[in-house]
Structure to design on (435 residues):
């Protein structure tokens, strides 16, 4: 019976697609004054963020054992197709629909992309169509569950993973996106600053990764022999390239703020990459391609919540601090029994948290008028304490919520592959394919 459930899901979507035709237009009110420059920039940013998911596939795929490369890469790519369908049916409504208590959106608001064409706009971004905003935000929803996969790589059943990523998208990602980015969201109203997803994307994925590593326990053979370091380098390049859409696109317009976000993103990634390498040398290790790549990505993670709120010098500081902290966390993790295969929590989770806190340290209203209280560095404490409380609340929600979803998934369909399948490798045992 279980094998028919995916087919039934697609059948329901097919029926709904006939019941809710895309010709439904929003022609109410005066025609909006779309800015062609903003439309062009957001179209480009949307494409840039999408390419991050194939980039992540290369980044993770190059790090795992050769027998698990295809499975690991597919775990990222499958998010592109599954999350897109969910987003267009009701996912966007959950994240950005009419607020229900400030914690979740009404799933009926934009059900099946209802009323998304014509004159419809997202009020905080009135210079380009609402549908473009929905497509841009979709790319964030796609990559977030994909980030988690590095934690349970080489030991999860693919079909079970699909169930988990659907549940995570609905019950963890969507509420956090609504709380943080919707004008009526609880965290938004409290003054929490998250420019491009430090809380919504990286912290949620990081804590879910830790929960996954603890729940699934360690691999039977935890030897780590990267299959293709060249894949990791390619993946890093694609991630960095796409991250300009991730951060600079979050300015929601082709303005000087987008330029600031691009500059701070570049500064933090570069500072973190070189800091990771120099810190390794300081500890008597050889400078490595893997270290350079991982450090640069950590810098990109850490600057994400702060990109449009801080200056370039402070972005350099964020990159350096995040690289050292995450490097130490990776070292600590290796001394524990936690089998976070690709160190998702030390890099994305901790990197996101460092970025959130440092946003509360370095944010200034001269960079962005949305900052109502300056950061701790400028002698004010309110913003820092707000960021700290949000960090604690989101951490608790994402970790324990993910642990509950893992348990539910395991009851529906076992999460772990058999010892024999793990030995053979997931490429063969889950997909019947070989690198």
């Amino acid at each position: 019976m279980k094998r028919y459930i995916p087919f039934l899901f697609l059948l329901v979507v097919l029926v709904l697609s006939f019941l809710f035709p895309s010709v439904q237009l929003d022609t109410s009110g005066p025609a909006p004054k779309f800015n062609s420059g903003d439309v062009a920039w957001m179209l480009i940013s949307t494409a840039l963020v999408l390419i991050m998911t194939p980039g992540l596939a290369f980044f993770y795929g190059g790090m795992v054992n050769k027998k698990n490369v295809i499975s690991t890469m597919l775990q990222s790519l499958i998010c592109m197709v599954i999350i897109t369908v969910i987003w267009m049916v009701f996912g966007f409504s959950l994240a950005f629909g009419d607020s229900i208590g400030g914690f979740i959106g009404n799933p009926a608001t934009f059900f099946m992309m209802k009323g998304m064409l014509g004159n419809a706009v997202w009020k905080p971004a009135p210079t380009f169509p609402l549908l473009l905003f929905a497509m841009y935000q979709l790319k964030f929803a796609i990559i977030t569950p994909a980030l988690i996969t590095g934690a349970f790589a080489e030991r999860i059943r693919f079909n079970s993973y699909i169930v988990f990523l659907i549940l995570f998208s609905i019950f963890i990602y969507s509420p956090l996106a609504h709380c943080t980015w919707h004008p009526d969201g609880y965290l938004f109203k409290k003054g929490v600053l998250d420019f491009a997803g430090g809380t919504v994307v990286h912290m949620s994925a990081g804590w879910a990764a830790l929960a996954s590593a603890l729940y699934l326990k360690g691999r039977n053979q935890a030897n780590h022999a990267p299959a293709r370091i060249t894949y990791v380098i390619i993946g890093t390049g694609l991630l960095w390239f796409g991250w300009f859409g991730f951060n600079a696109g979050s300015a929601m317009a082709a303005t000087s703020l987008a330029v600031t976000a691009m500059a701070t993103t570049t500064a933090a990634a570069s500072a973190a990459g070189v800091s990771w390498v120099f810190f390794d040398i300081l500890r008597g290790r050889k400078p490595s391609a893997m270290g350079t790549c991982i450090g640069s990505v950590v810098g990109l993670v850490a600057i994400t919540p702060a990109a449009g709120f801080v200056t370039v010098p402070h972005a350099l500081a964020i990159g350096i601090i995040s690289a050292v902290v995450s490097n130490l966390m990776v070292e600590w993790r290796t001394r524990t029994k936690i089998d976070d295969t690709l160190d998702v929590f030390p890099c994305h989770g901790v990197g996101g948290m460092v970025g959130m806190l440092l946003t509360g340290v370095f944010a200034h209203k001269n960079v962005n008028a949305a900052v109502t209280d300056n950061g701790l560095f400028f002698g004010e404490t309110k913003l820092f304490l707000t960021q700290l409380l949000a960090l604690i609340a989101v951490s608790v929600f994402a970790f324990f919520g993910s642990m509950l979803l893992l348990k539910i998934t395991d009851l529906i369909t076992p999460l772990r592959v058999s010892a024999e399948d793990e030995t053979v490798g997931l490429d063969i045992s889950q997909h019947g394919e070989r690198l």
